[in-house]
Amino acid sequence: MSDKLKLVAAFLLVAAGVVGFYVLQESASVLRALSVLAGVAAGVAVALSSEQGKQFAVFFKESVAEAKRVVWPSRKETLQTTGVVVVFAVTMALFLWAVDASLLMLVNKLMGRGE
């Protein structure tokens, strides 16, 4: 079976699981959920058997390995950086408010709407 047909079959299996969810409308919620999960599981299994699916699996494994190598900031560094961002955002908000109020006053004076 060609890769394109495998991907179409995978999509159809997922769609069949969703259709099963609605067909089993009178059944227990567990059976309806299992219908969707079975369709998704079968679709993923078929998709992973294609060449693109195998490439995706390799990419996913390499991504997980790369994420493990990342040096994450400490709690202290995270809080400090967040503090700087919040202070900057508040400062910019105040600055933009002041500029807006000044321009509003200037336009009102130019239009003769003095208060």
What is the secondary structure topology, with strand pairs?
Layout: H1 3-23, H2 29-48, H3 51-69, H4 75-110
Helix pairs in contact: 1-2
For the structure shown, list the relevant keywords.
115 residues; mainly alpha; 4 helices; 0% strand; elongated
Q: Order of SSEs, N→C? A: HHHH
Give the overall pLDDT as a whole number.
Answer: 92
SSE class:
mainly alpha
Q: Percent of residues in helical segments? A: over 70%
Low-confidence stretches: none
Radius of gyration: 29 Å
* Helix run count: 4
The counted number of beta strands is 0
Shape: elongated
Main sheet attributes: strand count, strand direction, barrel closure: none
Describe the structure.
This protein is mainly α and 115 residues long.
Quick structural summary:
With 115 residues, the protein is mostly helical. The chain has 4 helices and no strands.
